[in-house]
Amino acid sequence: MTKPDTDLIIAGGGLAGATLALAVARMVPSLRVTVVEAFPLSPDALPESYQPSYDARSTALAWGSRLIFEELGLWHRLAEHATPIHHIHVSDRGHFGATRLHASEHGQEALGYVADNRWMGLCLMRELLETNVQWQAPAEVTDMTPMPEGVRVQLTSDDNGTRELTARCLVVADGGRSGLREKLGFQPSHHSYGQNALIANISTSDNHGFTAFERFTDAGPMALLPHGSPSCAGHQSALVWTLNDEALAEVLELPDTDKCRRLQERFGWRLGRFTRIGSCHHYPLTLTTVDEPVRPGVALVGNAAHALHPVAGQGFNLALRGLMTLVEQFRLATEQGKSIGDLDVLRRYQARHRQDWQQTVRFSDSLVRVFGQSMPPITAARDAGLVGLDLLPGAKRWFARKAMGLGGRRAVISRPGRLNRGGTRHE
C-alpha cells in the first residue's frame, strides 16, 4: 500500500476513543491519528469555566486509573472536579456480613474517584487541541475493507456523503451499540442478567463522608458513590440501582418523593433520609465479551470489546488499562519498523490484556451471582466471607487492590523520565 491517509483511525470520540487518541499522541507522537466521531464538535463544547450539573452522568475512576491519567499529563485537570473515595462500605441487606476499606490503611490518598463524564470529556478535548490529532466530526465509520499493510475505511456524514480513508489500523471505540462491531464480522457473546441499571444523582440528609456504599439486596445490588465537591464532604451521591423490568417500570412511574421512599426501603438509613433524586436514566444489564477482539488491521477496545455489570465499577477502568496496553504495542511496533496494524502486533495486545479482562469479568460476574442467591447456606457463606475480608489482612488487601484497579497487568509506557514495567528508569 502506498503511504496511507493516516496511520490510525479511531472510530468513536467518547471517553475511550479520546483517551486512546491522547495516549498515542503523547507516547507515539510519530503516528498520525484521526478520530471519527458521530457528534459534531463546536466551540461551545469547551467553555471557559465548568459548572457541574446536578443531573450529570458520572464514572467511577479507580486509583490505578488516576495513575494512568497522571502518566498522560491529564490528572491535574481532572482532579479539579473529581470527588475522592476515602472509604468503601460493602454490605448485604438483611444480613450481618459487611466489610470496610479505608484509603489510609493502604497508604493512599483515595481508593478511587468519581468524575462527571462531561468534565472528563472537556479535559480530554482541551488536551487534544494541543496535539496533532485530526477529527472527522460529525461522521461515522460505516465499513472497512482489509488491504495489504492496512485498511480502507468508509466514512459517512450528512454534509459530505460517503468517502474513504486509508490507514495502517482501525480501532473500534464506539461502544457496543453502534453495530459497527458486528458489521465488521466480530462475534460478541452476550449474557443477560435479566436486570436493569437505573442511574441518577441523589441527595441525603447526612453527608457522604467520601464513602462509597456497595449494598447487596435480594432484588439486586445497588451502589452510592460520593459526588460533588472534591474537598468538602457533601450530601450528593451518584446512584446505581439494579431493578428487574417490572420494578423498573414501577419506579419510573413514581413521583420523586415516592422514588426516594422506595430507595430508602432498599438502601436503609446509613446516609440519613433521601431528600432528592435527579433525572433517571436506565439501561439493560448484559455481560458482553468478544473472545477474539483483533483481526489484521482492526482492534476492539472499551465497551466494544467487553461490557460488564456496573456492580464493581470496573468497566471504564478495565478499558483504560487495555488502551495503555495497546499503545505500548503501537510504540514497540513503531520502534521495530512494523505496521501498527500487523496481526502479530495486535495479537500481542490481545494476549497481554486477556488475563486482566478475564479476571475482571470473573470478579464482577461472581459478585453478581454470589450475592444474587437467597438460599440460607449461600447467604451464610457470603456473610462469613464479608466478615472474613474485614478480619484477614491478606484477603482484605487483595479485595482493596481489585477495587483500586491495581490487580490487572498493565504496561507502563517507557518514555524519558518514566518507569518501565521492570521498575528501571529511562532517562
From TrEMBL:
Give the EC number(s) listed in the UniProt record. 1.14.13.-
Q: Which Pfam families match?
A: FAD_binding_3
Q: In which pathway does it act?
A: Cofactor biosynthesis; ubiquinone biosynthesis
Give cofactor(s), names only: FAD
Q: Taking every annotated instance into account, which residue ranges of this chain make up the domain FAD-binding? A: 5-363
Q: Show the SUPFAM superfamilies listed in the entry.
A: FAD/NAD(P)-binding domain
Similarity comment text for this entry: Belongs to the UbiH/COQ6 family.
Put simply, this protein is called 2-octaprenyl-6-methoxyphenyl hydroxylase
Q: Name the source organism.
A: Marinobacter metalliresistant
Query: What does the organism's lineage look like at the top?
Result: Bacteria, Pseudomonadati, Pseudomonadota, Gammaproteobacteria, Pseudomonadales
